[in-house]
Design goal:
The complex is a heterodimer of chains A (380) and B (345).
Chain A (H helix, E strand, L loop, with lengths): L1 H36 L10 H14 L2 H26 L7 H18 L5 H30 L3 H23 L20 E3 L3 E2 L1 H18 L1 H11 L1 H6 L4 H28 L10 H11 L4 H25 L5 H14 L1 H8 L29
Antiparallel strand pairs in A: 1-2
Chain B lengths: L1 H47 L7 H23 L1 H29 L4 H27 L22 H9 L3 H19 L1 H11 L1 H6 L4 H28 L10 H11 L4 H23 L4 H9 L2 H19 L20
Helix pairs in contact in B: 1-5, 1-6, 1-9, 1-10, 1-11, 2-3, 2-4, 2-9, 2-10, 3-4, 3-9, 6-7, 10-11, 10-13, 11-13
The chains are: A mainly alpha (380), B mainly alpha (345).
């Protein structure tokens, strides 16, 4: 009994702030929905949030299809969340998941289309590897620049996101456009599509994403590299003093982070979208940040946070159709969750929770200023 | 050796081409640089006092939206001119209000500044997209249009040397025109006034500033709010002076390019303005090359570069500049570090 109690208390200590942050975010978003309902044609509707949240829930979990959609939406978020979370562990903020995701999706689409007629056992792994390598390469650039020159990864990755959209559009238009379609896109992926395991759309990428959670957990907690990543994140100077190479670790972490984001793009491409066309959504990028923060950079936490946000994305269309509350309310909720996590003081005040005895350090180590703390001075 | 000759000739032709189109490019450059410059000034003022703000993008976007919304809602009632003027006021006010939020989060709550800024960006995207879909799109109506730019008398442009410069700065709408004055005023304020001295003290060594009686928190609040008001003005420029419409995510990374301009300008107003002009030039080049195709081989070469590469140029340039310059320029010492007063925790 007491062991169960202690265990429950431990869980509560870790999960209470994230859970209450979600509750608070939903309350504040409800206020936004009610206030903004005044400006619509239907007029002031005090009960609109309940209806909206009801159909959000129904859309996400109300049926077999709903649950399947939630899991399909969660899979890239798990990988994207791991990508951001891994960066956090090393004190890096990878906002570039959106761009790395696109490059990964593009790589998988191009190689997948090329191997459309090859046996699936060859085509699927190769297309996945192409996506992973594309993402890794796109993560390596800001990692290398941060490590060598101190260019802040937040700005460089966002610039790379914008550049990726433009350059991939150009690539689809001029380099790999498939003939026979009225708009620029890549060819059919044929046998490279991820096999559907269950139902209509539960593809192989979902178990793969869950497996990756445990791989990343193992990497962080059981390997030397993982130890070095965490040490660099907490104190780069101490890490250097202890003989580690923060510069190498920073470049490596960003590359691995990009690789995870690239895999996210690849499974989305090979499991859901099927072809690359300009304008495919990359909302996974910013969702991943919220997922990583909500999961406190802990792989298991990220798994649950990703399922939650997957549910939001899966349920939101039904909400917009049934209650005409715009889908963008999900972004608002997300921002609020991040707000309440970044400023957990607010949550503590509202719900009167004392500060935990064991200080949670994940968020403290994220970042300081332009290329200062984490990179240190480049070597002479 | 023939290719070398061709290459040198092309470089020479490019230089000649740039000199000939420059007078026509100048007004476009300032036009494109205006939101970047105002955003960069927001960064300078905040970071000189020790607060990093990567939420400039979101603040610009939100201010752009509410400025547009004001014109959209009022132009039938009070006429387009007054509603546009009111829209600018609303934009600046919204910017300042978001500055207050950012200051509260970073100074009082001591939240991670980068995450607070990211939150601002996501929230801005969500709130503006939400309200856009809820209010503006279903109405099917347009906004209040754009502020009519000021035109210099025809003779001015033909003056040698000064003519194009005058046109660049004064053949513009009021916001673009005011940028130069704001830059000069801030440059003087930051390095020649009590406010500037206090700002720099708080940003370099808050503890020392506190010891001599400067209220660190108050100074940071003031600077962040004032800076974000400028970012709000940048937002007003986008919807009320430049495009006359609002699209989701229309800032398109300008808030981040502004940060690169700030770093490029080594945290000084004039330097940041220079950085913004540089990015404006990069963007304008892509436009001009397609409108006035140079003759001969140079034209063939430049036209063979896909337009998407020109569009990506400012972003790629930001990366190169950050990588090349940031290592050698020093941010304010206490930039991004929350200050904890002694005896408080």
């Amino acid at each position: 009994m007491t062991r169960v109690r202690t265990f429950a208390r431990q869980i509560w200590q870790v999960a209470s702030i994230p859970l209450l942050a979600i509750v608070l975010a939903f309350i504040v978003a409800a206020v936004v929905i009610v206030v903004s309902s005044v400006f619509t044609s239907s007029g002031f509707e005090p009960l609109l949030p309940l209806a909206a949240y009801g159909s959000l829930l129904a859309g996400a979990f109300g049926s077999g299809t709903g649950i399947a959609n939630t899991l399909v939406a969660a899979a890239p978020l798990i990988l994207g969340g791991l990508a951001v979370g891994l960066g956090f562990k090393a004190g890096l903020f990878n906002i570039g998941v959106a761009g790395q995701f696109l490059v990964g999706a593009f790589g998988a689409a191009v190689v997948g289309a090329r191997l459309a007629d090859a046996p699936a056992a060859v085509a699927v792994p190769l297309a996945m590897v192409a996506g992973a390598l594309g993402g890794a390469a796109f993560g390596f650039i800001p990692g290398f620049l941060k490590a060598r020159t101190g260019a802040h990864e937040v700005v460089t990755t966002i610039m790379l996101n914008n550049a990726a959209v433009l350059l991939l559009t150009w690539a689809v238009n001029d380099l790999v456009r498939a003939p026979g379609f009225s708009f620029p896109r890549t060819g059919e992926i044929g046998n490279s599509a991820l096999p559907v395991l269950l139902g209509r759309n539960l593809h192989l990428g979902i178990p793969l994403a869950v497996l990756t959670v445990f791989v990343v957990r193992w990497l962080l907690e059981r390997t030397t590299i993982g130890f070095e990543i965490r040490t660099v994140g907490q104190n780069p100077n101490a890490a250097r003093y202890a003989g580690m190479r923060p510069i190498f670790i920073i470049a490596l972490t960003m590359t691995l982070s990009g690789l995870l984001a690239g895999v996210a793009g690849a499974i989305q491409m090979l499991g859901v979208i099927g072809f690359y066309a300009p304008g495919i959504t990359a909302s996974v990028g910013f969702d991943s940040i919220a997922v990583a923060l909500l999961g406190r950079s802990n792989p298991i936490g990220i798994l649950f946070a990703a399922i939650l946000f997957g549910a939001f994305r899966a349920g939101a269309p039904l909400m917009q159709i049934e209650t005409s509350v715009p889908i963008e309310v999900i972004d608002i909720i997300q921002a609020l969750v991040i707000l309440f996590l970044a400023a957990d003081l607010i949550v503590r005040r509202v719900f009167r929770i004392r500060a935990p005895k064991v200080e949670l350090t994940e968020l403290k180590t994220v970042t300081q200023s332009w290329g200062g703390a984490a990179s240190g001075t480049p070597p002479p | 050796m023939e290719w070398l000759g061709t290459f040198l000739r092309l470089i020479w032709e490019l230089a000649v081409y740039l000199v000939t189109v420059l007078p026509d490019m100048l007004p476009i450059i300032l036009f494109l640089a205006t939101p970047l410059a105002l955003g960069a000034l927001c960064g300078v003022i905040g970071e000189r006092s020790g607060v990093v703000n990567i939420g400039i993008e979101g603040i610009m976007l939100t201010a752009a939206f509410f400025g547009y919304l004001t014109g959209f809602a009022l132009h039938n009632a009070i006429g387009s001119g007054p509603s546009l003027a009111l829209g600018i006021v609303v934009s600046v006010f919204v910017g300042a209000l978001l500055g207050l939020v950012h200051a509260w989060l970073t100074v009082s709550v001591r939240a991670d500044q980068i995450i607070a800024g990211t939150m601002m960006n996501i929230a801005a995207f969500g709130v503006t997209g939400y309200l856009n879909r809820l209010i503006i799109t279903p109405s099917g109506l347009g906004g209040a249009g754009v502020i009519t730019p000021f035109h210099l008398p025809d003779g001015v442009a033909n003056l040698p040397l000064v003519g194009p410069i005058l046109v660049m700065f004064f053949d513009q709408g009021p916001i673009a025109m005011s940028v130069l004055f704001i830059v000069i005023a801030l440059q003087i304020a930051l390095f020649r006034t009590k406010w500037g001295l206090r700002t720099r003290a708080v940003g370099e060594h808050p503890k020392a500033a506190d010891t001599v009686g400067i209220d660190v928190y108050r100074q940071r609040y003031q600077n962040v709010i004032f800076g974000c008001a400028l970012a709000g003005l940048a937002g007003a420029f986008l919807t009320l002076e430049s495009t006359g419409s609002f699209q989701n995510g229309m800032t398109g990374g300008r808030g981040f390019i502004a940060l690169a301009a700030m770093i490029f300008g080594r945290w000084t107003p004039i330097g940041a303005f220079g950085g913004a002009l540089l990015f404006g030039t990069a963007t304008a080049l892509g436009v001009v090359i397609n409108v006035r195709v140079p003759e001969g081989d140079l034209g063939t070469v430049l036209k063979s570069i896909p337009t998407f590469w020109y569009a990506a140029l400012p972003y790629l340039m930001t990366i190169v500049i950050l990588a090349g310059v940031v290592g050698r320029s020093t941010p304010p010492a206490a930039d991004g570090v929350p200050y904890v007063k002694e005896g408080k925790s």
